[in-house]
C-alpha cells in the first residue's frame, strides 16, 4: 500500500528522499534507479528518434499528499519550473481534508479523421457511407487483434458534410475507436488508412488525409475536490477571503481568453509534468486541452471554482486525456515505467484520473497565490536558488546565498556573485 504523506520530504537529501519513496511505495530501490541515471541510455534513445547525439534531462520531483478516489498516490512530475511540485503537494494536502480528489473517465474513445475530396454529391455520398457502416466498422475492428482481445476496437462511424472551404465542399468521416490502454494514435491511423480504399469505392471520391484528431473530446477525464473553507486560512487571510478570491480569479478566466490562457497554462503545469514523467505525448495533450477549451466558441477556463452549501471551496476540471500505459515511450523508457509503477495504475483511465487531479491541484495552487500574496513570493525563494547556482554557489552555499537575496528582495546574478564572494 502506498502512502503519499511523508513529513519533512522537502528538507531531505536526494538519497533520503529515494529511501522514503522506496518505503512508501511498491517500488524497490533498484526500480528507482532509472530516476537516478535519467533512465535512458544514448543507445536506447538512438532507437527512438533520428539523428540522436545524446540525451536531455529534466528534474523529476514527487508530488505528495494526493488521494485519488480514496487511494493514496505519489505523483511523479518531470518539470523545470520551480514551485510547481510544492504547489501541487500543498493543495493535495488541503484537498485531503475534504476527502481528496474524486475522478472519473469516459470510455477511451479516440477519433480518426478521413477527409474525402472530389465527391460529386456530398449528401448522397454521406448516406452511402452510413449504408455501409456495419461493413466498415467490421473491417476497422479486425485490424488490431491485440486491442480487440483487451476489449477495444471500432465503435462508430460519423460523417460530416463540409459545404464550403478554400477547395470547395468535402466530407469528413470520423472513425470512433476504443483504444483501451494505448494512447491510440497508431491503432487509429492504421484503421483510417485501411478504410480509405473502401470509402473511395463507396463515394467515388478520394480519401485525402487519414489521421487521428487530437481534439479527443470522446476521451474525457474529470476530477473534483472540496476544500474545507477553514483550511484555506493563512497569515492574515481568512478561509472565506481565500475561497472568494479563488472564485473571483476563476470568474476572470471564465470570461476572458487572455486570462483563460494563463489559467489553463497553470493547469497544464501539473498535467504535462505527469504526462512527461510517464513518457506520454504532451503535445497531443496540450493540443487537445486548448482545442477543448474553445469548444463553445470562446476560449475559456478548463476548470470551475465555486462553493458548496456549507461554504467550502469546490473545484472541478474536465479535459481530454489521451494517455496510454502500453506502447510508445511509456513502454521503452525505464523512467516512464517506474512512474507508472509508482502510481500503481493498471489502466490508462486510472492514469488519466491522477493526471487530471494533479492539474486541478496545480490550478488551485496558482489561484490561491494569485488571489492572496501574489505569485512572486513563492517563486522567489526557489528562483533565488537557481540564481545562486548560476552564480557558482554549490552545496550549502546555495541556500545561504539564496536566503540572503530573498531577505534583501534582490534576486539577481550580480548580487549572488557579490554575496558568494563575501562568504568565501
Ligand atoms: C505559471 O507557470 C502559471 C501561472 O501563471 C498560472 C496562473 O496564472 O493561473 C501562475
Explain what the structure shows.
The protein is α+β, with helices and mostly antiparallel strands. 49% of the residues lie in helices and 18% in strands. The strands form three sheets. It has a four-stranded antiparallel beta sheet. A four-stranded antiparallel beta sheet has the order 5-6-4-7, covered by helices on one side. A hairpin with a 7-residue loop joins strand 5 (153-162) and strand 6 (170-178). Helix 4 (84-96) packs across helix 14 and helix 16 packs across helix 17. The longest helix has 24 residues, at 348-371. The protein starts with 13 loop residues before the first helix and ends with a helix. The chain binds (R)-mevalonate. Residues 81, 262-263, 265-266, 269, 366-367, 370, 375 line the site of (R)-mevalonate (MEV).
Could you name the key traits of this structure?
Helicase, Ruva Protein, domain 3, 17 helices, binds (R)-mevalonate, four-stranded antiparallel sheet, Alpha-Beta Plaits, 424 residues
**DSSP helical segment count:** 17
* Structure classification: alpha+beta
- Give the uncertain stretches in residue-range form: none
Reading the helices and strands in chain order gives: HHHEEHEEHHHEEHEEHHHEEHHHHHH
Mean pLDDT: 95
User: What is the CA-CA span between the terminal residues?
Assistant: 47 Å
Please identify the top-level CATH class of the largest domain.
Alpha Beta
Number of separate domains = 3
Strand % is 15-25%
What is the name of the CATH architecture of the largest domain? Alpha-Beta Complex
- Which shape, going by the Cα principal axes? globular
State the fourth-level CATH superfamily of the largest domain: 3-hydroxy-3-methylglutaryl-coenzyme A Reductase, Chain A, domain 2
Q: What's the story with the biggest beta sheet?
A: 4 strands, antiparallel
Helix amount, in percent?
A: 40-55%
Query: What's the total count of β strands?
Result: 10
Strand line-up in the sheet with most strands: 3-8-10-9
Rounded to the nearest angstrom, the radius of gyration is: 24 Å
What is the CATH fold-level name of the largest domain? 3-hydroxy-3-methylglutaryl-coenzyme A Reductase, Chain A, domain 2
Amino acid at each position: 500500500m502506498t502512502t503519499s504523506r511523508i513529513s519533512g520530504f522537502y528538507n531531505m537529501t536526494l538519497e533520503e528522499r529515494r529511501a522514503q519513496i522506496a518505503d512508501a511505495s511498491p517500488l524497490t530501490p533498484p526500480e528507482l534507479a532509472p530516476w537516478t541515471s535519467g533512465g535512458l541510455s544514448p543507445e536506447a534513445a538512438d532507437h527512438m528518434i533520428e539523428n540522436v547525439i545524446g540525451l536531455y534531462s529534466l528534474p523529476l520531483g514527487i508530488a505528495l499528499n494526493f488521494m485519488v478516489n480514496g487511494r493514496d498516490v505519489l505523483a511523479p512530475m518531470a518539470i523545470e519550473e520551480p514551485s510547481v511540485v510544492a504547489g501541487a503537494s500543498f493543495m493535495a494536502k488541503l484537498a485531503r481534508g475534504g476527502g481528496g480528489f474524486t475522478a472519473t473517465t469516459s470510455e477511451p474513445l479516440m477519433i480518426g479523421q478521413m477527409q474525402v475530396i472530389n465527391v460529386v454529391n456530398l449528401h448522397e455520398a454521406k448516406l452511402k457511407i452510413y449504408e455501409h457502416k456495419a461493413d466498415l466498422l467490421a473491417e476497422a475492428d479486425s485490424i488490431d487483434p491485440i486491442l480487440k482481445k483487451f476489449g477495444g476496437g471500432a465503435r462508430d462511424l460519423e460523417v460530416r458534410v463540409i459545404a464550403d472551404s478554400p477547395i470547395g465542399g468535402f466530407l469528413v468521416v470520423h472513425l470512433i475507436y476504443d483504444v483501451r490502454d494505448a494512447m491510440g494514435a497508431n491503432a487509429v491511423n492504421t484503421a483510417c488508412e485501411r478504410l480509405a480504399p473502401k470509402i473511395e469505392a463507396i463515394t467515388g471520391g478520394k480519401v485525402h488525409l487519414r489521421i487521428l484528431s487530437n481534439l479527443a473530446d470522446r476521451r474525457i477525464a474529470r476530477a473534483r475536490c472540496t476544500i474545507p473553507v477553514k483550511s484555506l486560512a493563512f497569515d492574515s487571510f481568512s478561509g472565506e477571503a481565500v475561497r472568494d478570491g479563488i472564485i473571483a480569479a476563476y470568474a476572470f478566466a471564465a470570461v476572458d481568453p487572455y486570462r483563460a490562457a494563463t489559467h489553463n497554462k497553470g493547469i497544464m503545469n501539473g498535467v504535462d509534468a505527469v504526462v512527461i514523467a510517464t513518457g506520454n505525448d504532451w503535445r497531443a495533450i496540450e493540443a487537445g486541452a486548448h482545442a477543448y477549451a474553445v469548444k463553445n466558441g470562446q476560449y475559456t477556463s478548463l476548470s470551475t471554482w465555486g462553493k458548496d452549501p456549507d461554504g467550502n471551496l469546490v473545484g472541478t476540471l474536465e479535459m481530454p486525456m489521451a494517455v496510454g500505459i502500453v506502447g510508445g515511450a511509456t513502454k521503452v523508457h525505464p523512467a516512464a515505467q517506474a512512474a507508472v509503477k509508482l502510481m500503481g495504475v493498471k489502466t490508462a483511465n486510472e492514469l488519466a484520473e491522477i493526471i487530471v487531479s494533479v492539474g486541478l491541484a496545480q490550478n488551485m495552487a496558482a489561484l490561491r497565490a494569485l488571489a492572496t500574496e501574489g505569485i512572486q513570493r513563492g517563486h522567489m525563494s526557489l528562483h533565488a536558488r537557481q540564481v545562486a547556482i548560476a552564480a557558482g554557489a554549490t552545496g550549502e552555499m546555495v541556500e545561504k546565498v539564496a536566503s540572503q537575496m530573498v531577505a534583501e528582495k534582490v534576486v539577481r546574478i550580480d548580487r549572488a556573485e557579490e554575496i558568494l564572494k563575501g562568504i568565501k
